[in-house]
Structure formats: structure tokens, C-alpha cells
Amino acid sequence: MTFQLPPYPYDRLAPILAAANEHEGGAIDCSIGTPCDPPPPAVLEAFARASSHRGYPMSFGSQRFRTSVTSWLARRFGVKVSLDEVAACVGTKEFVASLAQYLHLRTPERDTVLYPAISYPTYAMGAELAGLRAVAVPLVDGHLDLAAIDPSDIARALVLWSNSPSNPTGLLDDLAAVATWGRHHGVLVASDECYAEFTWRGEPKSILQHGNDGVLAVHSISKRSNLAGVRAGFYAGDATIVQFLRSVRQHAGLMVPGPVQEAVAVAYDDDAHVELQREIYRRRLSLIREALLKVGLTCPPPEGTFYLWAQWPGHDGFETARMLAERSGLVVSPGELYGEAGAAFVRVAVVQPDERLEVAARRLTA
Questions:
Q1: Cα distances (Å, whole numbers) of residue 164 to 134, 149, 194, 195, 314
Q2: How far, in Å, CA of 69 to CA of 268, rounded?
Q3: Residue 349 clears pLDDT 60, i.e. is over it
Q4: At what angle do helices 239-251 and 92-106 cross, to 10 degrees?
Q5: Is residue 3 part of a domain?
Q6: Which of 302, 310, 301 is nearest to 344 (CA)?
Q7: Shortest CA distance to 62 belongs to which of 207, 259, 280, 292?
Q8: CA 237 to CA 212: how far, in whole Å?
Q9: What is the pLDDT of residues 154-212, one digit of tens each?
Q10: Do 255 and 135 share a structural domain?
Q11: Residue at a domain's end among 226, 250, 269
């Protein structure tokens, strides 16, 4: 049977976007989590000064890139990772989408990807693109319900994806429990931690705080430093898995451009700009959350991320999204895009400039 590519999730928002564009000044698009704020000036200067334009860059990351990453992991999470236990990737979406395919080459007798039932769509899509099985794991209070996974699926599992803080729910998972489960069952755990810097309940956490064996932590520069356009991130953890992925990805020609590696190293060396960005997102989350509450939505404060996960009682996510677009020009993502279990919700990404979000809030509460 010929592979049938499903529609790209955000293509389904066209009618909602059209309704929002009826407002003066057009839509206020909070449907996609793409940063709007400027990156650190020092990073832009590093691009300008970069000396690695001519030659092919190291596929797994230059020593400078990996040193900055391991130093950041030590500062932020208190974990020690060697240079051989970390490697660059061309943005973490690429890594998420291709991981199952490469793991299947290593362990062809396993054919299943386990992922959170409400989650970033690329976890499941990575399995589909590789011709493998994608099996959703239920969530209980934001935690993966590990006891609900069928033993037959465990036996076939290549990887279990965790995402904490979660896109889209903003909830935190129990990474210690997930790491323990993976080791007990011999299943690699891939922990997507790209929103870790924007953790609002307690300190940022990484699965690497519970040891490197049998786990990978995946991080992106996109959200942390407003550098989504440069497409760069890294993965770190189990040395055997990292070495295998380094080799196979090198054969595939996956390389972060040299000037990007130089600039990203500068970004990971600096924490001050992240603290400023945290306060910006904290303020925006509060502004929009209060406006949503005033028009009858339920919207708990997130434990992490720059997303609000909201519900209009008695309505599904598409109905809620259309109401918000018609009333305020605010475009949000219906929760169904993140799995059937999220169909009653919407996700709001507070990634528009303050003045645009203030317009949306005023329209909502007028």
C-alpha cells in the first residue's frame, strides 16, 4: 500500500486564521511556538565573526560546540557529561522525526515508538515515516501512565518519548520514574527537554540527573535563545547510543552549519539573556491567562513552557479556537492537533510581542 501522508496539522487552521484576519491589523497568531523576541547581540556578533564558512563542519559538533553544551548542562542541571556523550543535531524536530528510523536499523526486531497521548505530533510521525508502529501512552496528571503500557508493546518498543515541561500541556513529568522504567524494561528513553529553561514550578530538570545509561536528553537552542531559525540543538546521554547515532547521522549528511555552531556555543555560554526571557514569558502568560479566565475558559497556570492549555466548558478545541479568533483575532491551536485526548482543549503560545497580546486581551475582555 502506498504511504498516505496525513495533512500537516497547522494546515487545518486556515478557516480560523481567516476569521482572525477580519480584525483591524489582522490576526494575532499564537498557534505556533515560534519566538518573536531578538536573540542575544553576542550571538549575532559570533555569526559575523565566524571563520568556518568554507569547510564542512563536524556532523556531531565541533569541540567548541560540545564543550559549551557540557558546561551548560553542568551549570543548569549539575550533571557531568563527557564530550563523547553529546552530539549536535539540525534542530530537534529533525532529530525527533528521524530517531525511530535510525534506532530500527540498530534493533530491527523492535518496531514500536511509545509517546505521550497528548504531545508534539512529531513523536508519532517519526514512527510513521519509518514505517513503524506509534503507540500512545495515557497521561495521569501530566505523568506518563507507565503501568498502562501493554507488555506486548514494551517487548516491541524501540524508544519511549518523554516531554517535560510538556508541549502542549505545560505539565512536568516524573523523569526519575521514567528513567527507572526504561532501564527495567530495556527500552531507551528519549527525554525532550527543549522547554526546560522555562520551568515555573521548581528548578529545571533533566533526565540526565538520574544517570546516562539507557537515556537521551534532547535540547534545542530555538526556545532558549530565540534562535529557531538557525536549526540547531543537541542530544546527550548513553554513550553507546550517542556513538551509534553520531555515525549513522554522519552517513546521512546531517550537519549543523559551522557558523551556526560557533554562534550557538556563544549562546550556551550565556545565561543572563535567558533570565530576561523568562520574565518576558512569565508576564505574557499572566496577561493572556487572566483574559481567558474572564471569558469563561478554564486555564490553570502552566508548570513550564510558554504555553497555556485552556478549555471552554461544553465546547471542543476547534469551537474554542473559532470563538477566540472571531472575538479577538487571537489564533490558537485546537488540542486535537496534539492527540485525540486533547480534543477539548486549545493551546495558546504567548509568542507575540507584548503590544499585540495586550490588544488581544483588551478585545477578549471588552
A1: 19, 19, 8, 7, 29
A2: 6
A3: yes
A4: 100
A5: no
A6: 310
A7: 259
A8: 5
A9: 999 999 999 999 999 999 999 999 999 999 999 999 999 999 999 999 999 999 999 99
A10: yes
A11: 269
User: How confident is residue 267, by pLDDT bands cut at 50, 70 and 90?
Assistant: very high
Q: Which amino acid is at 157?
A: A
**Do residues 48 and 183 share a domain?**
yes
Write the DSSP symbol of residue 29.
E
- Gap between the terminal Cα atoms of the chain: 53
- 233 and 254 together in one domain: yes
Instruction: Provide the domain limits for residue 223.
Output: 44-269
Partners of residue 28 on adjacent β-strands: 330
Domain shared by 190 and 280, yes or no: no
Residue 338: which of 9, 8, 7, 6 has the closest Cα?
9
Where do the H-state alpha helices sit in 37-131? 41-49, 63-77, 92-106, 122-129
105 and 195 assigned to the same domain: yes
- 260 and 297 assigned to the same domain: no
On whether both 123 and 67 belong to a single domain, the answer is yes
Q: Are 345 and 308 within 8 A, CB to CB?
A: no
CB 50 within 8 A of CB 259: yes
Show Cβ contacts of residue 304 under 8 Å, excluding neighbours closer than 6 positions. Answer: 164, 165, 166, 170, 171, 172, 195, 196, 198, 199, 200, 201
Question: SS3 of 113, please?
Answer: strand
Looking at per-residue pLDDT, the higher value among 291 and 5 belongs to 291
- Strand order of the β-sheet with 86-89 is 86-89, 233-237, 215-220, 188-192, 157-163, 112-116, 133-137
Same-domain status, 23 and 130: no
pLDDT digits (tens, 9 = 90+) for 8-67: 767 788 999 999 999 999 999 999 999 999 999 999 999 889 887 888 899 999 999 999
pTM over 0.90: yes
